Amino acid sequence: xxxxxxxxxxxxxxxxxxxxxxxxxxxxxxxxxxxxxxxxxxxxxxxxxxxxxxxxxxxxxxxxxxxxxxxxxxxxxxxxxxxxxxxxxxxxxxxxxxxxxxxxxxxxxxxxxxxxxxxxxxxxxxxxxxxxxxxxxxxxxxxxxxxxxxxxxxxxxxxxxxxxxxxxxxxxxxxxxxxxxxxxxxxxxxxxxxxxxxxxxxxxxxxxxxxxxxxxxxxxxxxxxxxxxxxxxxxxxxxxxxxxxxxxxxxxxxxxxxxxxxxxxxxxxxxxxxxxxxxxxxxxxxxxxxxxxxxxxxxxxxxxxxxxxxxxxxxxxxxxxxxxxxxxxxxxxxxxxxxxxxxxxxxxxxxxxxxxxxxxxxxxxxxxxxxxxxxxxxxxxxxxxxxxxxxxxxxxxxxxxxxxxxxxxx
Length: 410
What we know:
This protein is of the alpha+beta class. The chain folds into five domains: about 1-55, no CATH class; about 75-85 and about 325-395, conserved putative lor/sdh protein from methanococcus maripaludis s2 fold (Beta Barrel); about 90-100 and about 245-325, Efflux pump adaptor protein, beta barrel domain (Elongation Factor Tu (Ef-tu), domain 3, Beta Barrel); about 100-130 and about 210-245, CATH 2.40.50.100; about 135-210, Helix hairpin bin (Helix Hairpins), CATH 1.10.287.470. The protein is built from five helices and 23 strands. The strands form six sheets. The protein has a six-stranded antiparallel beta barrel with strand order 2-11-14-13-12-15. Helix 1 packs antiparallel against helix 2 and helix 3 packs antiparallel against helix 4.
């Protein structure tokens, strides 16, 4: 700006020097000065406007109010009412033997001679699971039997002496004191005979307990002993048997859902990695709740099947009876740190939050176990873009807003 002004002034000076005092030149000089002044004022005005905007610029975006000034957003709402749905509870758990019987050493133990069974086999009650060496015990049994014969001979001799003494008492050759002594000798001999017989019976009973046998019929689950191993009272569990082969699922269920499951309820069990489904029946519910997980155990019994292996993981669906409740699409149910909730439009067309309790979840939607009557106007979708207290224009799903062309609902 200043450069152009100096150039114009220099031109004016040259023109003045060449034609000073000429009227035409004086008019041209005044017009040129006026033009330069206007240009200078315009440049200054533009600079002032730019400076004003730069000084008042803010980096913070304008707050989002959820709706443009004067425009009320339309939202799709539904009033689901109530329906009757078959109650279903989904859970997971561990497969186990319904009645698992641990089997160990009952007698005095010893060296294992043979183990004629393998895990996975069916065994009968009383069937030998492991044979224990009894060579020493056999000799002890023979010794006890011999002691019986010795005691019986002594008893017979004492009885014969007593009989002869009784015949001589009447003749006066033996006194009554001698008879009493011989009677006591006879009684002691008989008592020793009975002791020997009892010792033999005890020895035979101990020998009978040397072998490890199955206490009941069932499926042999584990075998923890091998031939040559020395076992005794402290050897622990050598075999485990599922009595009758019966299995069960130990389902872990939340404390609120556990109350809704009646004893005798039917469940469908699917082991992990299998497409087979097995039917079971709830026969027991845990009387206590785990303090950390807030869950309890429901025991669901089922018959034996080769695909059911104790210790395996499985899922279960349990029939909990029919329920009458609203059902919503998944898009209508929201959740945050405070739990699950839905947004409803009240009578004043303002958005409200309503906490709900969820029930059965299926491909058809989510059954609301508590918190709704079903008559509310519930925001069907995109509720996350609305604010509590915001005014909206509710549009019943499948209908256009009154007095307006159909608008795309949020």
